[in-house]
Amino acid sequence: MTEILFYITGVLLLIIFYLVYKALRLLYISKKRPLTSVKSNDVNAYLMLAFLLLFLGGFWGYSFYVSDEGLAEAASEHGDRVDKLFWIATTVILIPFTLLHILLFWAAFRFRHKKDRSAKYYPYNFKLEISWTVITAGTLIALIAMGIILWSDVKSPPPKEAEVVEILGAQYVWFIRYPGTDGKLGKTDYRLIDDKNSFGMNLNDPAATDDFTPPRIHIPKGQPVLFLIRSRDVIHSVFAPHFRLKMDAVPGMTTQFWFIPKYTTEEMRSKTGNPDFNYEIACAEICGRGHFAMKMIIVVEEPEDYREWYQQQRSWVSQHPAYLSNHGNQNKYK
Amino acid sequence: MLGVIIILIILLFIFNRAYIHRTRILAYFIEDTKEAKAIRSTKEVHGESFVTKYIFSTDHKMIAKQYLLTGIFWAVIGGLLSLLIRVQLGMPEMDLDWLEPVLGRWITDGRIDPEYYLSAVTMHGAIMMFMVLTAGLSGTFSNLLIPLQIGARDMASGFLNMLSYWFFFISSCFFLATLVVETGPPMGGWVVYPPLSVLPQAAPGSGMGMTLYILGFVTFIISILLAGLNYITTVINLRTVGMSFSRLPLTVWALFFTAILALFSFPVLLTSFLLLFFDRSFGTSFYLSDIYIAGEALAYSGGSPLIYQHLFWFLGHPEVYIIFLPALGITSEIISTCSRKPIFGYWFMVLAMLAIVFLSYVVWAHHMFTSGMDPFLGTVFTITTVIIAVPSAIKTFNYIATLWGGSIHFTPAMLFSIGLISFLMSGGLTGIIIGNSPLDIQLHDTYYIVAHFHLVMGALAFFGMFAGIYHWFPKMFGRMMNKKLGYIHFWITFIGTYLVFMPMHFIGMAGFPRRYYTFTAFQYMDRFNNLNLFITIASIITFAAQLIFLYNFFYSMYKGKKAPRNPWKSNTLEWTTEKVVPGHGNWEGSIPTVYRWPYDYSKPGAPDDFIPQNIPLMQTKDSNTEEENNILERQRL
Ligand code: HEM
Ligand SMILES: [Cu+2]
Ligand SMILES: [Cu+2]
Predict the structure, then answer these.
(1) Which biological process annotations from GO are given for this protein (chain A) (predicted)?
(2) A8/chain B closest Cα distance in angstroms
């Protein structure tokens, strides 16, 4: 494969050199005689052809060269479907991309001004217009149909048994909260936030007492996971590229995204051959000076390991008992 | 505060002037009175002082030049900012200490501050979009071409026209002030989403910088609205005899549609900024709620940042077409002229533009697929967004069909027009991908988007602007620009632009988010270092090539070859003026009458390969179509 590419590149380069040479020669000839517009016209026409080859050759060559570096394999179930549609749509656009560029530059070359040929007076062809309109519209409608079906699946209500993880964006850090053994996230209020209580948990709510806030996200492989996403200052955006997941964190509202991870972190480590591999969340909505480094790591585990990890977590309150006795303050925001 | 007072004083001044000139202004709008006709048809004969000729000019051609020069000024600044961005991304080790005299405290240890990086991104985007490609592009060519191509002596109201430039000028001053203010320019991206743009605690640029930014926009919007009203009125009322809508050059159609688009979308931006201003200054909660920042819970409650996003993009999306349509209008004209062939599918071109105008009002939320809005909206906006690709495709096909079978003269303007078609395809097609909501999940706010909009909007509109400048330079300055320099400028810029923006697709697919100061904090971004360096080098070369253009532009202004009356053998009316650079009033004698559409190139039977619009059918008996002969016949009876 690479060998063939190599040869193709070689041939392409030769042709391009030839065309440029031809163009330069024309320039040279025209230097000797007075520059007529026909000459500079030819120079540009040959350059058009050379550009066509350089452009399409360069594009396709480079695409093959980086094919595995661009869009890495998806690690979630909807991600596979998204990728499939992405490649279908990409194929659909690359065909006209290639053909139309060939047509465009070929037309520019072929129909360059020459003394003995004049342009054709041909202003209009109704059938042609209608047919390309209909063909374009038809193709696009097919793409739309596939798109909205997939969209409605991705955005469907999360399954009841989904593991819930709350992600709270704050300037330049992500905070994580799990509902604990009762499976319910406790109430919060932003007016209760302080240095330690980064979520503003209201401990009058019994559901809050077993919530825990680990430094990393852990999720089980092969099971639905629901991210509940909030922000406490400006807009951030949870972006986990491997899972094809992105959702803004907006102050004043809760957004959500659910998905099913396909590979554990360990599996990805052997897949990618990188022993330090980690799933990462980046922030994708500009949020201030630390925007470029707002990182969270997701650990995907086998379900058993995940359960075990879950059991071991100590609730936030047990680490900050002072907040339990501080009820008076908390009552305000029942 | 001072700004507001200044604006009030200026407004008072304007009203005063408007009152004094009321008969004149009214006369322009009321079509049928005798006085009005008299006023419109007399050439203005008044002594012109330096001030009224070059500064407070009401002549549309001078105003066009003012827009152009201001636009070029901003393009240089916007370009330099983009270099700063690229240097940080591609050559982070480079020592930038020498920039300290300019950037002051934003340079530490030879590196640009992350906050100033965000400011640079913000100001680069805003300057390029509004100052250069809205005011500089559509301002220049609407002013220059609308009256000349429809056969009018000037705009409907020269006075409002002058005002619109001077509001733009004030807006430019605010933008300049924004760039140099102590706490830095806004740092929220050109979209300045709240709460980031409201809270100085979140980013220092949201303080004074943001206030100036808003003032800049308010004056800018006033300028656009004044100009838009004027363009629309002019096109509707001041077309010369015979210039029916079906004979309007596509350039005028495009500029006309642009004005309509602007007129109905910019007021919404004004509204969204007004509410933003209230939230910032008076503590209202339109956009904010539940915020804890800098150790303090703020009092805002009940607002939603999504409201801002909806309002903003209701302008924001039409805005990209406000940038895009004039460029396409300009090149429609050039491609037809330089292929010596009528534009293919004239009415389909017009209808496609009309469709774009309508559709562009109902696609805004494709910028918000991942914003947390109701997923159902995602479905709706996917449908409208992908459908808007149809009219753009029609335009592309028509362009290629125009070239096909032509006799192409590669003037610099033509080269840039062909480059524009190429960008229209490579940038437009990716729109089909990111307009599809499930695919946008991954690509939103990554470099894929940066690649997409730079090609289809940035590069495309810039090429339209270059094409327009090369083509109509003789009309503006009476001299020709140097062709060879034009060719060199084109080839370097064309190749360079692709080298800068094509690779960004791959970077974006790999998940590199935009508006990132560096890509060092994440494991998955630990690649493409060389590619980023490559892009930076390419963008420096591309920028350098623009110096060739600047040299050519200013040199040719004074020393270029004298231009003939109709250098491109074109059909439209602007080339029928007696003087190459017409004076006030455009035509010295009477206004030309129009007998045909503007695309009679290479008509069979005609002695020349072009027939200007003002040549009567009587004189072209050999080349008239049957239909045209019938018209003649009827006239004779
Ligand atoms: C020399 C040519 C140019 C280069 C090298 C360039 C480069 C860049 C870069 C690197 C970014 C920042 C991406 C990021 O960090 O998110 C950017 C943003 C942007 N550019 Fe350009 N650009 C160029 C010309 C233009 C033009 C002609 C336009 C006109 C429409 C334009 C409009 C924008 C906009 C709207 C943004 C987004 C700003 C934001 O994120 O808020 N650029 N450009
Ligand atoms: Cu961020
Ligand atoms: Cu849009």
Answers:
(1) ATP synthesis coupled electron transport
(2) 21
From the alpha carbon of B513, which atom of ligand 1 is closest? 16
Q: Which ligand has its closest atom nearest to the C-alpha of B381?
A: 3
**Ramachandran sector of residue B605 (left: φ over 0; alpha: ψ -120 to 50; beta: rest):** left
Ligand 1 lined by B500 (C-beta under 6 Å)? yes
pTM value is: 0.90
- CATH number for the domain spanning A209: value is 2.60.40.420
> How far does CA A272 lie from the centroid of its chain?
19
The residue whose C-alpha atom lies closest to atom 8 belonging to ligand 1 is: B82
Question: Nearest CA to A126 among B578, B398, B61?
Answer: B398
* Residue A42 sits in the same domain as residue A102: yes
**Tokens at residue B418, please?**
């062909």
B305 contacts in A (CB within 8 Å)? 235, 250-252
What pLDDT digit, counting tens, does each position of B76-135 carry? 999 999 999 999 999 888 888 788 777 878 888 888 999 999 999 999 999 999 999 999
In a domain, residue A6? The reply is no
B515 lines ligand 1 (CB under 6 A): yes
Mean pLDDT along residues B44-58:
65
Question: Are B305 and A250 inside 8 Å of each other by CB?
Answer: yes
CA dist., res. B582 & res. B576, Å (int) = 10
Average pLDDT, chain B: 90
How confident is the model over A268-279, as pLDDT tens digits? 999 988 999 999
Length of chain A equals 334
CB atoms within 10 A of CB B24: 15
Query: Is A197 in the same domain as A299?
Result: yes
Do residues A61 and A184 share a domain? no
CA distances from A222 to A78, A239, B244, B608 (A): 12, 20, 67, 74
Domain of A238? 163-333
In this structure, the answer to whether residues A297 and A240 fall within a common structural domain is yes
Count of domains forming chain A: 2
Residues A222 and A110 in one domain: no
Ligand nearest, relative to CA of residue B503: 1
B338 C-alpha to ligand 2 centroid (Å): 49
**Which of A63, A91, A120 lies at the terminal end of a domain, its last residue?**
A120
Q: Is B543 in the pocket of ligand 1 (CB under 6 A)?
A: yes
Using a CB-CB cut-off of 8 Å, the residues of chain B touching A132 are 393-394, 397
Same domain for A216 and A287, yes or no, is yes
Domain boundaries along the sequence of chain B: 1-25+60-303, 357-563, 577-637
The reply to whether domains B1-25+60-303 and B357-563 share a CATH topology is yes
CA–CA distance, A228 with A237 (Å, rounded to integer): 12
Question: Given an 8 Å threshold on Cβ–Cβ distance, is A190 in contact with B444?
Answer: no
Cα separation, A55 vs B499, whole angstroms = 10
Task: Indicate if ligand 1 lies below 6 Å from the C-beta of B79.
Answer: yes
Over residues B428-440, the mean pLDDT reads 94
Inter-CA distances, A119 with A308, B406, B494, B614, Å: 78, 4, 27, 22
In this complex, the residue of B348, B407, B409 whose CB is nearest that of residue A118 is B407
What's the gap in Å between B233 CA and the centre of ligand 3?
Answer: 28
Q: Is the CB of B122 under 6 A from ligand 1?
A: yes
B357-563 under CATH 1.20.210.10, yes or no: yes
Reported as a single tens digit per residue, the pLDDT across A211-235 is 999 999 999 999 999 999 999 999 9
Is A146 a domain residue? no
Please report the pLDDT score of residue B17 as a whole number.
Answer: 63
Q: Identity (one letter) of the amino acid at A215?
A: P
Let me know whether A55 and A188 are in one domain. Answer: no
User: In this predicted structure, what is the pLDDT of residue B211?
Assistant: 94
Looking at ligand 1, which atom is closest to the CA of residue B132? 29
Q: Do B196 and A136 touch (CB under 8 A)?
A: no
Whether A173 is in a domain gets the answer yes
What CATH number labels B1-25+60-303? 1.20.210.10
CB contact under 8 A, A121 and B187: no
In short, whether B513's Cβ falls inside 6 Å of ligand 1 is no
Residue A319 shares a structural domain with residue A210:
yes
The distance of Cα B15 from the centroid of its chain, to the nearest Å, equals: 29
Distance B189 CA to ligand 1 centre (A): 10
What is the rounded average pLDDT of the residues A283-303? 94
